[in-house]
Write a structure and sequence with these properties.
- β2 and β3 form a beta hairpin.
- The chain is an alpha+beta fold.
- The protein has a domain of 170 residues: tRNA(His) guanylyltransferase (Thg1) (Alpha-Beta Plaits), CATH 3.30.70.
- Helix content is 41%, strand content 15%.
- The protein binds adenosine-5'-triphosphate (2 copies) and magnesium ion (MG) (2 copies).
- The site of one magnesium ion has 4 residues, from loops.
- One adenosine-5'-triphosphate binds next to β1, α1 and α2.
Length: 258
């Protein structure tokens, strides 16, 4: 049978081009990682191997997709900010989202053994993803502030929760004990257990930022590529404060509004 007659079904495909001039945020999140982290014996509250694996996947994302300008992650989630100028897949939402999620997931599986050499991957992990468009730099920055503030709140809670559980309390008791407590009370509780919250690794407290190094004038770049060529800049991971102004003042080239 000739295919010509059947091609009308393609007309039912829905286009879903994301609006021009908007930064595109793709946030991915581990599916049921509460269980995944237990089955794979993650250290609680923070397994550094798992966080470094997530960070390594995010670095691969920036290397693979030059139009991702910044990424921020903590726990089992990562947000990727695509340039407002990208025309990747003609800005089709389903393609940007599905390529992001599937590439990240494949890299996670491929690199698992590098970060968990003694822990077998016992079932295939999955990530979900969503897309949000922001037309202003202020909104993108507020989005990132929101994620970092969320990381702080969750991490402080989880650090207290697991400190109590490791001291012998039942999970339900620890939950009850912490209900309604403020930041100062949580810090006090940790001090009673000899933990200085501010001295815990920045990767746990602040989450991770992934971005490209600035190109300094006159510096010879890897492979002899010229400055300005996106893909030749080294992608780095840092645990920066992105709530305050300082980081954005120092890296003013990342988010620019014309
Ligand atoms: P959902 O499918 O709705 O996202 P979830 O079980 O993944 O459900 P989240 O709110 O995404 O729930 O939380 C992720 C959970 O994964 C955390 O609560 C924590 O238990 C676990 N987790 C993720 N990363 C780590 C890590 N690096 N170290 C320890 N635990 C982790
Ligand atoms: P796009 O990213 O746009 O999908 P593509 O290179 O994947 O580009 P497709 O139209 O999806 O292009 O075609 C898939 C191509 O992959 C085929 O043209 C063929 O070259 C190759 N391919 C896929 N499966 C097989 C297979 N089982 N044996 C040999 N070649 C294959
Ligand atoms: Mg999750
Ligand atoms: Mg999560």
């Amino acid at each position: 049978m000739a295919t010509g007659k059947l091609e009308y079904v393609r007309e039912l495909e829905r286009g879903n081009r994301l609006p021009n001039f908007n930064w595109i945020v793709v946030r991915i999140d581990g599916w049921h990682f509460h269980r995944f982290s237990e089955v794979h014996q993650f250290d609680k509250p923070n397994d550094a191997r798992a966080l470094n694996l997530m960070n390594s996947c995010a670095v691969s994302m920036l290397e693979k997709f030059p139009d991702i300008i910044f990424a921020y992650g903590d726990s089992d989630e990562y947000s990727f900010i695509w340039s407002e100028k990208t025309n990747f897949c003609e800005r089709q939402e389903s393609q940007i989202l599905s390529q992001s999620v599937s590439f990240f997931t494949s890299v996670y599986v491929m690199k698992w053994g590098e970060f968990f050499p003694t822990q077998e991957l016992t079932y295939p992990p999955a990530f979900d993803g969503r897309v949000i468009c922001y037309p202003r730099v202020k909104l993108v920055r507020d989005y990132l502030k929101w994620r970092q503030a969320d990381c702080h709140v969750n991490n402080q809670f989880n650090t207290c929760f697991w400190t109590l559980v490791k001291s012998g309390k039942k999970k339900s008791e620890a939950q009850k004990y912490l209900a309604g407590t403020q930041t100062a009370e949580k810090n006090q509780l940790l001090r009673e257990f000899g933990i200085d919250y501010g001295a815990l690794p920045a990767m746990f407290r602040k989450g991770s930022c992934v971005f490209r190094d600035k190109v300094e004038e006159g510096v010879k770049l890897d492979g002899g590529r010229k400055p300005g060529e996106e893909t030749c800049r080294r992608v780095r991971v840092d645990y920066c404060d992105i709530i305050g102004k300082e980081f954005w003042d120092q890296h003013s080239e990342i988010l620019v509004e014309d």
